Amino acid sequence: MTDKIDAQTPKLTPKDFSSGADVRWCPGCGDYSILAQVQRTFAKIGYQKHEPIVISGIGCSSRFPYYMSTYGFHGIHGRAPALATGVKLALPDHPVWVVSGDGDLMSIGGNHFIHACRKNMDLKMLLFNNRIYGLTKGQYSPTSEKGKITKTSPYGSIDYPFNPISLALGSNSTFVARTIDHEPKHMQMVLEKAAEHVGTAFVEIFQNCVIFNHGAFNPLTDKETKEDHLLYLEDGQPMVFGKNKDKGIVLKGFEPVVVDLNDGSHSIDEVLVHHEKDESGILAFILAHMTDHPDLPTPIGVFRNVRKETYGEALYRQIDEVTEKKGKGTLETLLSEGNIWEVK
């Protein structure tokens, strides 16, 4: 993969990454915004069309490869991370992007997701989270809030929802972030950082489903309310929010609380400072659970960004080490040595 555009490399535009196929999402769907920002990001960071590979599972989001003028694969339900793992190991020089929904990745694909994170596969995984099953017409999903009334929970869901950020952190993903379909510039910034990361890069994208879960994220997207409900995470910066940037997050023990920076009892020096490269992950976990608390703002941005050896790096290093010690093997040797037996 080319890291930089040189004089001989044509500079592509977002339009170059559009396949030209009819985009079959409902008018007003948040997926349009995500598609546009991915295409802009691919052009901005200098990908050539033959380099990135986009892999999806099943769901509204998973139509994505059809709309990208790149290599791609539309897989089966929940298996996108497994397919992407095979592709990345076979083609290590190509960036591999996984596109999935909350039903696809958090339900039937949950096992594949946590193990891709655990192995630190060098994948960019985008979760389109609209907290509903959209393609199958409005059933509650693993991220739907408790009490959600849907076609499969007519009296309210009794399930506790997954917190995808917390799940990714618990699976030891080395890059974990969140953005929103209504925040295109923020989304592009997060996608660029994910593209730069070496290792598992997980990005949760809050995405509005206009048909089956319209307005699920209204407090975070409405111009009148979003400043008081969103906490923009910036590495090395204090966690302040609000229309006038007069509210801050401080820790009482391990409990984040909101303080008023204008009441005279708290100063900016007390406010928690974000560190996305915190190796322990403790701060990222605390921030992840703020999402579940009605009295706290919802963090968006990069929660964690650390570097460690990827599965692919470890695999090829091991192959080189064994080859140096034992020499290059053959298929015949492989089949005729070790634990073999003869059937008579």
What does this structure look like?
The structure is a single chain. The protein is α/β, with parallel strands linked by helices. It has a domain at about 15-215: Rossmann fold. About 30% of the residues lie in helices and about 15% in strands. The protein has 12 helices and 11 strands. The chain has an 8-stranded mixed β-sheet with strand order 2-1-3-4-6-5-11-7, with helices on both faces. Helix 1 packs across helix 7 (about 185-195), helix 4 (about 100-110) packs across helix 5 and helix 6 packs antiparallel against helix 10. The chain starts with about 30 loop residues before the first helix and ends in an 8-residue tail after the last helix.
Beta-strand portion reads 15-25%
Write down the Rg: 22 Å
The total of helices stands at: 12
Shape: globular
Quaternary state of the chains: single chain
| CATH superfamily label of the domain at 14-216 | Thiamin diphosphate (ThDP)-binding fold, Pyr/PP domains
The chain-level mean pLDDT equals 95
Helix percent reads 25-40%
- Please state the structural category: alpha/beta
The largest sheet has its strands arranged as 2-1-3-4-6-5-11-7
What is the strand and helix layout of this fold?
Layout: H1 31-45, E1 53-56, H2 64-67, E2 71-74, H3 80-90, E3 96-101, H4 102-108, H5 110-119, E4 123-129, H6 164-170, E5 175-180, H7 184-196, E6 201-206, H8 218-221, H9 226-229, E7 230-232, E8 240-241, E9 247-252, E10 255-260, H10 282-290, E11 298-305, H11 311-326, H12 331-336
Parallel strand pairs: 1-2, 1-3, 3-4, 4-6, 5-6, 7-11
Antiparallel strand pairs: 5-11, 8-9, 9-10
